[in-house]
Structure formats: structure tokens, C-alpha cells
Amino acid sequence: MSLDAFSLKGEVALVTGGGTGIGLAMAQCMAAAGASVVIVGRREAPLQEACRAIGANASFEVFDVTDFAGAGPLLERIGKRVGPVSILANNAGIHLKRPAVDTTVEQLNEVLQTHVLAAHNLTRAVLPGMIERKHGSILFTASMASLFGLPLVMAYAAAKSAYLGIVRTLATEVSPHGVRVNAIAPGWIETDITRRAVDSDPPRKARILARTPMGVMGKPADIGWAAAYLCSPAAKFVTGIVLPVDGGASIGF
């Protein structure tokens, strides 16, 4: 047995929304495991800062995932500069907190475009090369909203729940070709956004911790290392799963 089973050496990982939060943690952990990591996002400054934090194995591309026509050229640029993408982490997304009755069709569509259509578009773009090489891993960032009901996030829950069907169906199609497809469903993680939300609302934080059996929030690296594992040879027989990384929240009461 060898720890090489957890190595991502030789892999090229594309992480969308990789400049901050969970996406940055995924990129950091994959780079630490040996992958060459390319992070994408809409703003250059956070991407530059993230690459400095990740280290020499990281580079970035300014890219809006809803630029559907731009996926092919993006992958061509990465291929020429770093190599063909062998890991795709579909992590980019937007959030909408709003009662369902007040959520417009346009708002729902915007959330679905960013999460579902954009992830499908990039996945569709990387798959031919992965299938040809008989090697690849595709990862989706799902959510607790994929697993149980949370109020005021109908659009977000719809998008994240769609990932579950995509993962299971896509895995049945491409796993015979050496391409694995999985998702992570993060629990409550201490990102800047989460801290701002709960620090100003102590009762909400208390409710979150009360329904999390471990009694604490997770760290971004908890998601990052789970992502690195799922994309590593150690998980070579794992496909089509949704892995909660949530301190037990999805099974707590």
C-alpha cells in the first residue's frame, strides 16, 4: 500500500469559482496533492490573490461560466498552456435568498443558468477528451439544499438538486469510459460569506450548530480534501455518489 493512491500528480484540474471560499480550498488541496490547478472566475484580482495563496502549481483564467460559447476556447487555452483537463470541479454558483412566491421566472432562470446549464456546458466540453484518454474525474458542488428542505432558497435548491440527477445519470454513461462523476454536499462551512451571515444572527448560528451532530461548522479544507480524495486513484471505484461533508447535519435531528 502507498500514499501515492492519494496523489494527483500529473493531473490538470479546472476549478470554477476557484478564487474564494470552497472553490479556493478545493484548488489548494488539489495542488497540494500534486495537481496543476487552473482556477476560473469573473474577477481577476481575487484570482491573482488565490494563485499566490495556492502556490506554483496554480494559474488562472478570467472566465464567466455563463459564456457558453467560450468553453471550447477556454479549454484550448488551458490545453496549450498547462495540458488537457483531467479533473473538472463544477463549483461556480450564485445564491438567491427569497420566498418562492416572490421568486420570478427570470431570477430562477439566472440561478439555473449559472449552476446547471453552465456546469453541463463545461462538462460537455471536457468529456470528449476524457473519454478519448479513458481517464477523467468530474465533480459537482451540491448542497444541504440538495438533501433536505431549507426555507427561502427554492431557486438554489432546484439547481443543487438537479446536480444529483446529473451525477447519477452521467456516471452511468461515462464511467465505462474511465470517467468518474461525483458530487460533494457541503454542510455549514466557515467561509467569509457564512461568517458574515451567522455572526450577525446568533440564534441562526445556534440552530445550525444544534442540528449538526459534531456541534461545529466545517472548514473549507474539509471540502477541499474530500474533493482531492474523490478525484484521486484512492477513489478509483467510486462513481455516481453524493458525499455529504457536513458534520452529520444531513442525518442529525
Q: Quick summary of this structure?
A:
With 253 residues, this protein is α/β, with parallel strands linked by helices.
Explain what the structure shows.
With 253 residues, this protein is of the alpha/beta class. The chain has a single domain (3-190, 219-244), classed as Rossmann fold, CATH 3.40.50.720. Helix content is 44%, strand content 15%. The protein is built from eight helices and seven strands. It has helices spanning 21-32, 44-54, 71-81, 105-133, 154-174, 192-199, 202-210, 220-230, and strands at residues 12-16, 36-41, 58-62, 87-90, 136-141, 179-186, 242-245. It has a seven-stranded parallel β-sheet, sandwiched between helices. α1 (21-32) crosses α8. The longest helix has 29 residues, at 105-133.
Attribute tags:
single chain; 253 residues; Rossmann fold; 8 helices; 15% strand; globular
Computed CA radius of gyration, to the nearest angstrom = 17 Å
Q: What oligomeric assembly is this protein in?
A: single chain
- Overall shape: globular
CATH superfamily: NAD(P)-binding Rossmann-like Domain
Q: Helix share of residues?
A: 40-55%
What is the string of SSEs from the N terminus onward? EHEHEHEHEHEHHHE
Mean pLDDT: 95
| End-to-end Cα distance | 39 Å
CATH architecture: 3-Layer(aba) Sandwich
- Low-confidence parts lasting 5 or more residues at pLDDT below 50? none
Largest sheet: 7 strands, parallel
Count of individual beta strands: 7
SSE layout and pairings?
Blueprint: E1 12-16, H1 21-32, E2 36-41, H2 44-54, E3 58-62, H3 71-81, E4 87-90, H4 105-133, E5 136-141, H5 154-174, E6 179-186, H6 192-199, H7 202-210, H8 220-230, E7 242-245
Parallel strand pairs: 1-2, 1-4, 2-3, 4-5, 5-6, 6-7
Helix pairs in contact: 1-8, 4-5
